[in-house]
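Handout, section B. The chain below has 482 residues.
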Amino acid sequence: MADCNRNALGTCSDAGGYNTTASGVASHAEGSTTEAAGTASHAEGYNSIATGETSHAEGYASIATGAASHVEGSSTNATEVAAHSEGFNTLASGQASHAEGNSTEALGTASHVEGFGNMAIADNSHAEGYGTTTDGIGSHAEGAQSNAGGVAAHAEGFSTTANGDGSHAEGNSTNALGTASHAEGFESLAIGGVSHAEGHGTEASGYASHAEGINTSAIGNEAHAEGTNTTAIGDNSHSEGYATTASGETSHAEGSETNASGDVSHAEGSESTASGGAAHAEGLGTTASGDASHAEGDGTLASGSSAHAEGLSTNATSTASHAEGGSTNATAYGAHAEGVQTTASNSGAHAEGFLSVASNFGSHSEGYNTQALGAYSHAEGGSTQAQGDYSHSEGYLTTASGGAAHAEGTSTIASGTWSHAEGDGSEASGYNSHAEGNSTIASGTFAHAQGQSTVAAGTSSHAEGYLSSTAFDAPYAHAPKG
């Protein structure tokens, strides 16, 4: 029999095959160039070594050094107690670890790695797929080039990272960094604790925030961003639609390119801005910058506190002001402008109609091209003017310029205090005078002119009829009908 160089050196050992050595007590070596050095160890195959007690090495160039370890395959290594390595070029160095596949490493206690080029580093972790790594205790990485770094984290898909404790990353190039965070989709990032990012290019950085859609960002705590290119910055804010921003706390922006920057504000529509606290902007290009203001329509502005602007290009710029219609302006406290191109520019003023102006305290203008210029004055009709305080002008082309004066009809003028002009072309210029009819004049104090082309010039004078008059130096005179 040829010399097979079998060496059974251990007590009760057994060596078979060629160039084998069984040096451990009750060890067994078989195959070619194998060595069983551990007590009750077993080595078989080619160039395999079992040095750990009760270890088992089989295959090609495999080494089992840990007690009760097991290696099989080619170039496998099990270095710790109860470790198991199989496949090609695998390493199980953690106690009770398991490595299988190709070029895998199970380094943590009770870790499990399988696939190609994977590493299970932490205790009780599991890495599978291609190029995956588990750094967190009890973590799980699967897919390709994924990494689970947090305790009990889970990373799956391609190039994903779950570094937060209890986090979950899935999809492609996603990152879950916050505790119990969840990232899914493509290039999404969940940074905040308990945050959720999904879709494409999304980021949830606030605590319990949620970002979904395309290129959305939820930065505030408990913020929610959805849609495309939206940003929710304030705590509890909500941004949705396209290119919207909710930066105020508990703010809401929706629609297209809207901005809700005030706390508890709401912006909706297109290019609207709600920058005041509890403000509301809706429509197209509207701005609500005053606290509790409301702007709606197209190009409206509500910049005063509790102001309201609606319609087209209206402006409510003072506290509690109201502008509605087209190109109206309410610029003073409690002012109200409505209609088209009207202006209410003093406290409590009211302008309505077309081209009407109420510019004094508590004034009121309505109709067409009317002007209420005196305090508490009232102009109505067409092209009328109430210039005196408490004056009233109505009709067409009338003017009440005296205090508490009243002009009505057509082209009448009441310029005296407490005067009254009515009819057509009449003028009451005296104190408490009254002109009525056609082209009459009451210029004296308490004078009264009526009829046509009459003149009452004296104090308490009375002219009536046609072309009658009272002299300036004849008080209390009466001119009879002409």
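Note. The mean pLDDT is 96. Compare this with the example in section A.
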